[in-house]
């Protein structure tokens, strides 16, 4: 082979080598080699699929989460209002059994409960991430008084006992929009939950990004962009933001399962979503009242939430390790 052909071969292979070594491709290869992360991703995808397809699944199944089937068929419950059949009334007709006292179908109630909880958690995560990114990058890039003011606000928010604040403040929020003698619509409850969770959640990601930007804004490529007359908007979107995707993605993947448990906890305490709206926390709250006699109704939501949160946390760890191999311990 001549020197010229060797040079051409080397030149033609160079783009492929550079392409295969791009950060995104390297991260994807590292993630695919992580068996725990891949399995966790499949579990998480499964939960989101059944949450999105809950109405279709319920239609094919032939039941809904609101009908009290025991009122139509009293034989489903025994004289003590517990499922008459074994294992919570599980059968080919009611796959996960029926709810004690009311006789609702547990399977469809769980499907819609997952849909409600994940919908609120995803919306809160997206809003928190957007606010945290905007505030963190703004404070870090502008510096000075803006950075000082934002830093003090973040310190105050992080020092708040958020759970106690939710319990005390959520009724006040509802009272602003609805009279005391009126029922709070489920849509308003969900909206308030998303806003309040986001109001306390953005501080941690904003603090992280603020520190990242403080280091990046002194780098040579940012200084070069300023010298060439680039606008602050262009510097933020073209120079800073591309270098912040890794911490943003990592924080978001760790934030969502925390919001799932927080939303379920508020529902359990009666200040979030309430019965009869299906929700993970509502099911656990209902199940806690009669778990000594029939643990089946509490078992399904409890296990499913533990599996989802565990899988998503493991997925978040795998994503972090894939994007930043130095973070491995």
Number of strands: 0
Question: Which of globular, elongated, flat, extended, rod-shaped describes the shape?
Answer: elongated
The helix content, as a percent range, equals: over 70%
- Note poorly predicted spans: 6-20
- Average pLDDT: 83
Strand share of the residues? under 5%
Describe the structure.
The protein has 329 residues and is mostly helical. The protein has helices at residues 3-20, 23-33, 35-52, 54-61, 69-72, 86-89, 106-142, 144-159, 162-177, 186-216, 220-227, 232-240, 245-269, 280-288, 296-323. Helix 7 runs antiparallel to helix 8 (144-159), helix 7 (106-142) crosses helix 13 (245-269) and helix 11 packs antiparallel against helix 12 (232-240). It is elongated, with a radius of gyration of 25 Å. Mean pLDDT is 83; it is low at 6-20.
Main features:
329 residues; 15 helices
Give the structure's gist in a few sentences.
This protein is mainly alpha-helical.
Secondary structure layout:
Blueprint: H1 3-20, H2 23-33, H3 35-52, H4 54-61, H5 69-72, H6 86-89, H7 106-142, H8 144-159, H9 162-177, H10 186-216, H11 220-227, H12 232-240, H13 245-269, H14 280-288, H15 296-323
Helix pairs in contact: 2-15, 3-7, 3-15, 4-7, 7-8, 7-10, 7-13, 7-14, 7-15, 8-10, 9-10, 10-13, 11-12, 13-14, 13-15, 14-15
